[in-house]
Amino acid sequence: MRARRPGDTTALAALAAPAVTVHPDETLRALANRMARHEVTRLLVVTRDARPRVEDVISLRHLLTARRIDLHEEHHAERVLTLGRRRAAASAAG
């Protein structure tokens, strides 16, 4: 069996490739980087035990959903902070 090369998307090559794993405490950025580096859209979440066990599977869709939530929270926080600054400036001027 030949080794998997970048861009080789045959089912047999995908099955022969070792699984790409992550740990539950890793950041979204680390997961995204690992997906890009290994050209995969799913990662196995494994424990850090001496005998690791699979806890879950993270897909690209999960990663994008989590990022969308982060962006929404950042946007909301920025709007609240902006309004607070305007009110403080108005109070100081008045």
What does it look like?
The chain has helices spanning 11-16, 28-38, 60-93; strands at residues 21-22, 42-46, 54-59. With 94 residues, it is α+β, with helices and mostly antiparallel strands. The protein has a three-stranded mixed beta sheet. A hairpin with a 7-residue loop joins strand 2 and strand 3 (54-59). The mean pLDDT is 81.
Provide the β-strand percentage band: 5-15%
The Cα radius of gyration reads 21 Å
Principal-axes geometry comes out as elongated
Question: Which strand order do you get reading across the main beta sheet?
Answer: 1-2-3
**What's the number of helices?**
3
What is the number of E strands?
A: 3
- Gap from first CA to last CA: 78 Å
Mean pLDDT figure: 81
Which class of secondary structure composition applies to the elements? alpha+beta
Largest sheet at a glance?
Answer: 3 strands, mixed
Uncertain residue segments: none
What is the helix content?
40-55%
Query: Secondary-structure element sequence?
Result: HEHEEH
List keywords for this structure.
94 residues; alpha+beta; three-stranded mixed sheet; 3 strands
Helix and strand layout, with pairings?
Layout: H1 11-16, E1 21-22, H2 28-38, E2 42-46, E3 54-59, H3 60-93
Parallel strand pairs: 1-2
Antiparallel strand pairs: 2-3
Helix pairs in contact: 2-3
In short:
This protein is of the alpha+beta class. The chain has helices at 11-16, 28-38, 60-93; strands spanning 21-22, 42-46, 54-59. It has three helices and three strands, in the order αβαββα.
